[in-house]
Amino acid sequence: MPARLLTSSRITGIAITAIVLFIAVTVSSGRSSVPLSVSQLTGGTMGTGYTVKYRHASDVPSVEAIRTEIEQQLAEINQSMSTYDANSELSRFNRSGSTDWTPVSTPLYTVLVTALEIGRQSEGAFDVTIGPLVNLWGFGPENQAQEIPNADEIAKTLQRTGHDKLMLDETVRAVRKTRADIYVDLSAIAKGYAVDQIAATLERHGIEHYMVEIGGEIRARGTNAQQLPWRIGIDKPQIHGHAVQKVLSLDNAALATSGNYRNYFMIGDRRYMHVIDPATGWPAQSRLASVTVLAKTCMLADAWATALLVLGLERGLAVAEQLGLQALFIADRDGVFSEHATSHFKSGKTQNFAVTFLAAFLVIGIAIASMAIGVMMGRKPIAGSCGGLGRLGLGCDGGCGRPCSSGADHKSSADKSGP
After folding, report:
1. What is the per-residue pLDDT across 4-48, written as a single tens digit (0 to 9) for each?
2. Would you tell me how many other CB atoms lie within 10 Å of the CB of residue 108?
């Protein structure tokens, strides 16, 4: 196409478009010109630890006030859902021999609704009534296994499990057992729920940049202390030592990983893992070492990571793909790890590429705008990025410390900007 000069109207249009895009992206990023402080909280809960990192303005409650609120919140969740606390709401329900409707608190009901729905969607792989089997194998609060349960014990225990043996009534927020000896264990979903509640607390206080973690279940929003996306490492699923398999970027998302390689016991030369298959009553047997799930809430990520691990690689991938889940499966074949991701799984590299592309687009847009302003105001030929903004007294990022009077000035100052 033959070269031609840009008309004033065309230049104005380009300049306005670039400036509007720059303002829109800046506003949507939520970054304030006021520096944000960085705080961190740690503590113990649910038999593990919690970490909360957040960036905040000066007008939010003090760190100690937020700590008090979070720990009170965690204590209430434990009092509702813990199977290790004999006086918790869930423990009292488990001990009850009644099959009548039992009113329960809103948090417990909320978690049960989600648990039973995921149980149905996962073909029964996620089952919160599996507690008796977990205890039988020695992975619960009751005892530690010294030997493999016999087949009769497993078959008998299987009769008192099954997510279909729990019924919910949303009109009165109540739950009912169809067998008096049903035992509910929420350990594969309660931590995720707690993470979501802490995140909600931070957001109520206007905190938009945070990372909340309980026992490896994580939810993050905004950016970290370096104003970069939160970077979360996924463990290499090896029994001895710690190493990172993969690093992901999180922004307004939750992540949970369920592994089948650390919580186990040995009898002879056979290793028995803690993840129990509700269909067989035995520890899940597959070459899967871990499953990581990204979701909008940590409660969903937590439960689905367990469900997909139980399903195994082939069935798990098929279910996750069908339901549109973002899941990463790590398989172990004789110590060699391989990754298998659903088509919906978005890695940090993809997210970083998008950010880089957007940043480059904005830089080009601003450069065009600055050149256009220079041409319109000075009627000078376009001479690089030092033309418009320099004439407005704003200086130039390319090394121009003063308004540019010609292309030669820009070239000289740009040359001097290097090392």
Report:
1. 444 555 545 554 555 555 444 444 444 445 689 999 999 999 989
2. 22
At residue 261, what is the residue type?
Y
Cα first-last separation, the chain: 38
Q: Residue written as tokens 């990192």?
A: 53
CA–CA distance, 193 with 198 (Å, rounded to integer): 9
User: Model confidence over 118-155: pLDDT tens digits?
Assistant: 999 999 999 999 989 988 888 876 666 667 889 999 99
Cα 49 to Cα 191: distance, rounded to the nearest angstrom: 10
Domain positions in the chain are 39-346, 351-416
Closest CA relative to residue 141, chosen from 98, 192, 78 = 78
**3-state class percentages of the chain: helix first, strand second, coil last, to nearest 5:** 40, 25, 40
Contact of 88 with 81, CB cutoff 8 Å: yes
Sorting pLDDT into bands at 50, 70 and 90, what band is 88? very high
- Cβ atoms of 224 and 232 within 8 Å: the answer is no
Helix (H, G, I), strand (E, B) or coil at 43: strand
Q: Rounded to an integer, what distance in angstroms lies between the CA atom of residue 47 and that of residue 27?
A: 41
What DSSP line would sit under 284-351, residue for residue? --SSEEEEEEEESSHHHHHHHHHHHHHH-HHHHHHHHHHHT-EEEEEEEETTEEEEEE-TT---HHHH
pLDDT tens across 252-306, in order? 999 999 987 666 666 676 777 788 899 999 988 778 889 999 999 999 999 999 9
> Model-level pTM?
0.75
- 389 to 358, 377, 402: CA distances (angstroms): 21, 10, 10
Residue 383 bridge partners (DSSP): 385
Burial of 409 from C-beta contacts in 10 A (0-12 / 13-18 / 19+)? middle
For 46, the enclosing helix (H) or strand (E) is none
The secondary structure of residue 163, as a DSSP letter, is G
Topology classification of domain 39-346: T-fold (3.10.520)
